[in-house]
Design a protein that fits this description.
It contains one helix and four strands. It is of the alpha+beta class and 86 residues long. Strands 1-2 form a two-stranded antiparallel sheet. The chain has a two-stranded antiparallel sheet with strand order 3-4. The model has no long low-confidence stretch (mean pLDDT 83).
Length: 86
């Protein structure tokens, strides 16, 4: 079965499977019948169906966000490695 990617809005070929991408979550407190807290977790509020190409792009963008930012060394005509800002 084909589907339409909810990110790029393109129809996908037959027999391709959508990837569910979580876009919103919320905190959840789990209780028993007596109303006592038994645990905490998160629930999915909204997930969208996306294609492999959009999923790859999202993963690549997330990797870039997690990389430390490089700053040029400010010591004259320095040949040192760039400073890493975290």
């Amino acid at each position: 079965m084909s589907f339409k990617c909810e990110k790029c809005k393109k129809s996908q070929p037959p027999k391709s499977s959508p990837i569910l991408h979580v876009v919103q979550t919320r905190s959840k407190v789990y209780t028993n019948e007596a109303g006592e807290e038994t645990g905490r977790g998160t629930e999915i509020v909204k997930a969208i169906k996306i294609c492999k190409k959009c999923d790859d792009k999202i993963k690549k963008d997330k990797e870039k966000e997690n990389l430390p930012q490089l700053e040029k060394c400010t010591v004259g005509n320095c040949i040192h490695a760039p400073k890493v800002n975290k």
